[in-house]
Amino acid sequence: MPKKRDRLEIIYTILKIIHNHDNSIKPTPLLRYTNVSSQSFLEYYNELLDKELIREEYDKKKKKYITLTDKGFSFLEKYKLILGFIEEFEL
Amino acid sequence: MMFKQMIPLEILATEIIYFILVFCVCIFIYYKTRDAYNLTKHQGIFHFRNIFLYFALAYAFRLLHISIILLLDPRMFQNIRALQPISLLLVGYFSTMAVLSVAMAALIKKIKNHKDGLHTLNNSLHIVAIILAVIVALTRSHHVLILVLSVVFIVSIIFSIPKKKTKGIISQNKITYLLLFIFWILNILTLTKGVIPQELKIPLYVISAAIFLWIFIRVRKRLFSNAKKKR
What we know:
The structure holds two protein chains of two kinds.
Chain A: H1 7-20, H2 27-34, H3 38-50, E1 54-58, E2 64-68, H4 70-88
Antiparallel strand pairs in A: 1-2
Helix pairs in contact in A: 1-4
Chain B: H1 9-32, H2 34-40, H3 43-71, H4 80-111, H5 115-139, H6 142-160, H7 172-189, H8 198-230
Helix pairs in contact in B: 1-3, 1-8, 3-4, 4-5, 4-6, 4-7, 5-6, 6-7, 7-8
């Protein structure tokens, strides 16, 4: 049975997906690529907005896009280091 | 004169140098892990950082407590009896919080799935620490403080024992936490006259500071070395 992804890994996945889509993706494809239930996705999505790791932007047709903030980019850069730190100290 | 006739300056100087060393290392660890916590809000990192914040404060008030004992003459300074329980209360509170944070950092993997209860648990740590510190201050005894911390630590060890038998030796981390605890207890024992001989204090302080330094090096290596290599 595959290992259940932990919270931090899902956050990383969401941010990585946005990053891989030229830092601009609509909510529905993001939910699809993330591969979590829509309820879970909504929780993570709101958490990422609260933590200012992502932000919502609207184009001329008032369509919503999600992009990474500077903090979001910083998270992606430091994710591996933080993960190593968490493993080292068994947190 | 308010001060004691024969101020043991060497003792005080040793204590100040030791305090500065440990305090700086603790604050460095707290500061260096700030980004990791701010980005993730990871509960494990939160408690890990708190260990060093509370130890830094516990060492600061330990120095204050020592200064009161060493410098102020009880015959001339009438209110000294009122000051000692206050400094002991603060040492008791911050060291209990540090030990509770050690326990939380060791147990966080087991309890972080219970998201709702975690906030309540974090708040109740302060209440437990306040109650225990008040007991210590009322009894005015370093030995009661040691007893209180030992009970807290033993309870956390019992909870951290895995239900399933696991292979392998005790992890490096558990040893680190154990050493932090043992050396803090020895630090409290130095407050009671005659328990630890003067000539043993300096080696004890050196080892104690080395443990903090060792943790700092590990933190730095994990969070910063790779980043520099990448650049």
